[in-house]
Amino acid sequence: MDRSWMFMNRTIDAFEIGVNDFLRQAIAHAGVGNRIYCPCLKCGNKALYNVHEVKGHIFFNGFDTNYQRWIWHGESSSSSTVKNLGVTTVRVPPLVQEDDDGDDFFDMMQDVEEEFVDRPDQFEKLLSDAEKPLYDGCPNNYTKLSTIVRLYNLKAANGWSDKSFSDLLVAISDMLPQPNELYTSMYQVKKTMSSLGMGYEKIHACRNDCVLYRKEYKDLECCPVCGVSRWKLEKNKDTNKKSVPAKVIWYIPPIPRFRRLFRNDTHAKNLTWHATGRIKDGMLRHPADAPQWKTIDILYPEFGKDSRNLRLGLAADGMNPHSNQSTSYSTWPVILVNYNLPPHLCMKRKFVMLTMLISGPKQPGNDIDVFLAPLVEDLKLLWEEGVECFDGYRNETFNLRVTLLWTINDFPAYGNLSGYSVKGYKACPICGNDTFSERLKHGKKICYMGHRRFLPQAHQFRKQRKNFNGRPEHEKASQPLTGVQILESVSDLHVEFGKGKGKGNISIDGTWKKKSIFFDLPYLKDLYVRHNLDVMHIEKNVCE
User: Fold this and answer.
1) Mean pLDDT of 289-308
2) Is the peptide bond before 179 cis (omega within 30 degrees of 0)?
3) pTM of this prediction?
């Protein structure tokens, strides 16, 4: 059907003829009560009206010219495509009410379409579920798919178990008028969520943290390093509980989510805010104002010239998922923060990406590099080769590349991620071998009293004796090692990971325990700051 009328003046006859043809097709596929979605510029396919009201809206507000494939008015979702990545941007009604932190259902359906290019039937089913009322006479904003998404968000926000969620679905289904379209089991909900791009990869790990059972170790039954079985042992027995792994990590690949961000025109525009919307007056308000950001642009101009290339921070720390302080259990989430976004967005829940969950009960410690391997491999791919990505704002395809600016963690996790020993007489990662430390005679603890050396030479505290260690301070501040110097120090350090019997860490002069896996990223050695301490611990441990 000719669509040129959509761009014409609304006062001419050709526009009216085109509107009438469109409405005839829409009426043939109208839903309950012969109402159709209104495609005017104001409604944008977000509300249902009768045909006469829709016609009035179109003439008064104009027809939404971005709506060129009429999937909400009887046209197949696979009937036409655009050249960019072989997909078309679809406008889907936001059938779930949105709050400041919640995901927009409209954006979600629009962004996942790219993943259904080879599976149009599945996308048709999702679109059908997104339009199908929960039951006859149900309000328009409650459909089969939107209801499941809302309930699943409640489950995630409140920590409901799978069993309790399944019981709730059964109870709600019984309360609703019969028949209704509500799922009654968590299994059905998971299949739907997975098709929306909410899947993850479960990777088995050695219980002693020696290796991940992936790549060449994928089919092994025992750890190639320590020889321990891959599977859990039966309770009070010596036999293995086959198909129940002793330890698991959950890996959520970031690449599909980066692509999905750029598929959305609003998000794609915001991801270049640091180049187009940032105030550049020399003040430090955002990581884009920091020397580290500018260093990347100078050393790697090919990366810096495209403002769409992403700059990330990685945060990791242990947590007790059981909310029980008497239970010793440590689970480590690994989160990516996107610094391309403006400050009011980059810490929003929808833009903070959980990429990995390392299960307990013990913390990974120095062996965390074993678990970070899949993520670092993806980050290395995103730096060296990049991935093809469609920009919904500029309506073009480009090669997306990514850099990791730094990690964010507390001081013990700093040691795990950087490979530096943060305990003992040389615990300061800045001073290293020049760390000034003393063991308290009666307290039996090590204290660090060399902090006055970082004050200006004429500062009055440098001359005071009684208030400090009884001596004046004349030493100059230590200069932190550069990334190149650190890499040279640890390049010959080989550590066998794992917590098996007889395993131990090799240290260089009591400072470095290992070569951090982040040095697999070619640019890391050029960064001024590779690891940051989080603000909360600085406030608590220093300012209180």
Assistant:
1) 91
2) yes
3) 0.72
Separation between Cα atoms, residue 498 and residue 245, nearest integer Å? 17
* Residue (of 504, 513, 454, 450) closest to 486 by Cα position: 513
* 374 within 8 A of 204, measured Cβ to Cβ: no
Nearest residue to 249 (alpha-carbon basis) of 200, 287, 205, 282: 205
Counted residue by residue, the chain has a size of: 544
Helix (H, G, I), strand (E, B) or coil at 22: helix
Cβ neighbours for 126, distance < 8 A, ≥ 6 positions apart:
109, 116, 145, 192, 195, 196
Handedness of CA 355, 358, 364, 367 (dihedral sign): negative
Q: What is the per-residue pLDDT across 354-397, written as a single tens digit (0 to 9) for each?
A: 999 998 788 888 899 999 999 999 999 999 999 998 888 888 89
Beta bridge partners of 447: 438
The SS3 call for residue 384 is: helix
Could you give the angle at the alpha carbon of 140 between the alpha carbons of 134 and 145, nearest 5°? 45
pLDDT tens, residue by residue, 305-326: 999 999 999 999 888 877 666 5
Taking the C-alpha atoms of residue 250 and residue 176, their distance in angstroms, rounded to an integer, is 36
Q: What distances in angstroms separate CA 539 from CA 62, 110, 318, 531, 533, one per listed residue?
A: 55, 42, 19, 17, 11
Output the 3-class SS for 49-75. ECHHHHHHHHHHHCECCCCCCCHHHCC
Residues in CB range of 60: below 8 A, 6 or more apart: 40
According to DSSP H, which parts of 419-494 are helical?
483-490
Alpha-carbon distances of 437 from 226, 455, 463, rounded to whole Å: 37, 18, 19
Residue 338, Cα to own-chain centre: how many angstroms?
8
Per-residue CA distances from 495 to 491, 498, 505, 513, 527 (Å): 11, 9, 7, 8, 24
Q: Is the separation of the CB atoms in 248 and 205 below 8 Å? A: yes
Question: How far separated are the first and last CA of the chain, in Å rounded?
Answer: 70
Q: How far apart are CA 254 and CA 500, in angstroms?
A: 32
